[in-house]
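A further point concerns the way the authors explain their paired sequence and structure data. An entry of this sort, consisting of the sequence and the corresponding backbone structure tokens, reads as follows:
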Amino acid sequence: MTPDGLARIHARAMLVPRPWSAETFKGFLSDPGSVLALSGAGFALGRVIVDEAELLTLAVDPEARRRGHARACLAAFEAQAVQKGAARAFLEVAATNAAARALYASAGYAEDRVRRGYYVIPDGDAIDAAVMSKTLLPA
């Protein structure tokens, strides 16, 4: 999928944080540690740095939701991250995004802490971010 295609899905799927541009996606994809997992009308994008994977975003077109695309993208992201040497993964998710938090929890992620006021929404208010992590490889 091209950066333009990723940006289109992201724009349809995201409210918080604000959608990313094709240029932003190009920048992330140019990183040698980048991980892009695709499934139908969705994707997960992250990066691996040394032995840790960071899930930067997971987006599914609203018309394709509730069909397993997010779960498939997350699993593929984790598998690719392990191939690149990651033993652990982490992510940030809006504390108000109950569906995403439930998905991550069901996939084995645990909430580690909260970043107060991490996301700024269009009306100017701030939303907390839950920081969640998961062990990908046994110690």
User: Anything to note?
Assistant: The two ends are 34 Å apart (CA to CA).
